[in-house]
Amino acid sequence: MSITGWRVHFSRRDLALPREVTPFMREFSAVFAGLDQGLDDLAVPEGQPFLISPVGGYDVPLNRYFSVWLASSPWNTQAAHARDLRTFLDFLWFAARPAWLA
Q1: 56 close to 5: Cβ distance less than 8 angstroms
Q2: HEC per residue, the chain
Q3: Which residues pair with 40 in a beta bridge?
Q4: Could you tell me the pTM of the whole model?
Q5: How far apart are the first and last CA of the chain?
Q6: 71-85 pLDDT, tens per residue?
Q7: Exposed / middle / buried, residue 82 (Cβ in 10 Å: 0-12, 13-18, 19+)
Q8: Distance from C-alpha of 97 to C-alpha of 102, rounded to nearest angstrom
Q9: In degrees rounded to 5, what are phi and psi of residue 93?
């Protein structure tokens, strides 16, 4: 899976789910049921930013920055750092890509 660049997301509890339960949701109901508990177990605060790479990966050391260095910062400071970091990582990603990938 390749996307156009890095993405910023924010942790969120009580996600809105579709009104109709799909076969996928039935198959993985335990995953959907445990999302909030998983965030609580990991002590992830509501609204904490995280970055997803252009290939769809979650980089643990990179995202640890938000839970360690910015944990006591206000939400808008964390969001600004995440968006600035996304812009910088996009610059690196597109500058380092070989021409044949473009």
Answers
A1: no
A2: CCCCCCEEEECCCCCCCCCCCCHHHHHCHHHHHCHHHHHHHCCCCCCCEEEECCCCCCCHHHHHHHHHCCCCCCHHHHHHHHHHHHHHHHHHHHHHCCHHHC
A3: none
A4: 0.66
A5: 15
A6: 788 888 989 999 999
A7: buried
A8: 7
A9: -60, -50
